[in-house]
């Protein structure tokens, strides 16, 4: 198992339970990949080291699975955004619309009002920008999406796929829950403790702080690779583009922003959001707060890859890597980095469970690129 994140841990666990001997290797000194959590030394607050991770799913099997390994506390992600010198509620809901336009509209009034704002000449939105203009119109797009998205992705929303915006709903009621999945929560002791439990099996050994070399594959019946797809092939065809994040940590006596995540829609604020980690654990008490300002930039060699940029150039390169990956014997490419997709945690776990089930019954599954 290359990678001790959710994919590696879940596949490893399932195969260990099916009787296989599993070794997990990760280049980083910790398990849990980018959902790694740890207690901040100075404040004792549980910190999402690689940015905010909120567990949400409609998949009962996945929810039951994570609850086997962690105690989940109720948690609703209620994101706010600063824009044009004011604070608004996200995702765009009736409160946002009424505040933004200084109105007191009812749901049906807001719906027809936004239809009036929307660019209805766009029948089949292809880009992020078209999707936004079609559903919320130019004013809301510029206030909440344009600046944030340029900062987050480093390119114009005209060049991004509509699928990225489809992650966010527009609601004509006062529901400000960022996600609408049936099951939502936060593991009480953090994600790393959960992944530790998943990996805690007599047939699993974990090696941290060691890079995987392709020649090591020879000593194993099969490799599940959740590292970056291009790096597996030594980036021979070129590098796939990723965005990476930098975090600027600061402390605050008391409550800095009153919520876990505050987005910044303005372009001239250089960061995309501030996470105040203690709000992820409202059942704990901490006097001093620790916050992370989050900056997004292009990923350079040696940086940690976060978001795959599925742009035209990347898609062509990806197709070449996928051809290679498909003809590589004894290796299955899995997870966000291994298949170069923007995956939520629950989808990653679902795919890992399915991959392991197929492997246990009939051998390597076809990877989902
Ligand atoms: N987005 C935005 N403004 C916001 C929040 C999100 O424009 O205030 C856009 C942005 O392009 C982002 C995408 O919507 O990449 C998906 O947002 P999500 O909150 O799902 O991003 P994540 O938490 O996965 O980084």
Automatic annotation (TrEMBL):
GO terms for cellular component: cytosol. One of its GO terms (molecular function) is UDP-galactopyranose mutase activity. Keywords: FAD, Flavoprotein, Isomerase. The keyword Flavoprotein applies. Gene3D superfamilies: NAD(P)-binding Rossmann-like Domain (3.40.50.720). Residues 143-342 form the UDP-galactopyranose mutase C-terminal domain. Pfam families: GLF, NAD_binding_8. Its cofactor is FAD. The keyword RNA-binding does not apply. Transmembrane segments: none annotated. Belongs to the UDP-galactopyranose/dTDP-fucopyranose mutase family. This is UDP-galactopyranose mutase.
């Amino acid at each position: 198992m290359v990678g001790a994140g959710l994919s590696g841990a879940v596949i490893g666990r399932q195969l260990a339970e099916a009787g296989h001997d599993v070794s997990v290797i990760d280049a980083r000194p910790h398990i849990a990949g980018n959902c790694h959590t740890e207690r901040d030394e100075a404040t004792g607050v549980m910190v999402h080291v690689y940015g905010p991770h909120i567990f949400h799913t409609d998949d009962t099997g996945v929810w039951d699975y994570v609850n086997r390994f962690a105690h989940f506390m109720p948690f609703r992600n209620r994101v706010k955004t600063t824009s044009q010198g004011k604070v608004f509620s996200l995702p765009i809901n009736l409160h946002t619309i009424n505040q933004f336009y200084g109105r007191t509209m009812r749901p049906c009034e807001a719906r027809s009002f936004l239809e009036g704002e929307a660019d209805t000449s766009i029948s089949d939105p292809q880009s992020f920008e078209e999707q936004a203009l079609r559903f919320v119109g130019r004013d809301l797009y510029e206030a909440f999406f344009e600046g944030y998205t340029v900062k987050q992705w480093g390119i114009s929303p005209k060049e991004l796929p509509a699928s990225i915006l489809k992650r966010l709903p527009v609601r004509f009621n006062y529901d400000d829950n960022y996600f609408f999945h049936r099951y939502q929560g936060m593991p009480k002791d953090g994600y790393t403790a959960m992944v530790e439990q998943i990996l805690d099996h007599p047939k699993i050994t974990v090696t941290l702080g060691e890079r995987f070399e392709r020649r090591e594959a020879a000593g194993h019946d099969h490799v599940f690779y959740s590292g970056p797809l291009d790096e597996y092939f030594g980036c021979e065809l070129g590098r796939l583009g990723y965005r990476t994040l930098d975090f600027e940590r600061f402390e605050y006596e008391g409550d800095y922003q009153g919520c876990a995540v505050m987005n910044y829609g303005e372009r001239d604020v250089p960061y995309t959001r501030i996470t105040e980690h203690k709000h992820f654990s409202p059942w704990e008490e901490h006097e001093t707060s620790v916050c992370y300002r989050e900056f997004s930039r292009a990923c350079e060699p040696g940086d940690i890859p976060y978001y795959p940029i599925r742009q035209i150039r990347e898609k062509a390169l990806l197709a070449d890597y996928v051809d290679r990956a498909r003809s590589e014997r004894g290796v299955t490419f899995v997870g966000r980095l291994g298949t170069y997709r923007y995956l939520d945690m629950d989808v990653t776990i679902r795919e890992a469970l399915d991959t392991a089930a197929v492997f246990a019954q009939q051998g390597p599954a076809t990877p989902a690129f």
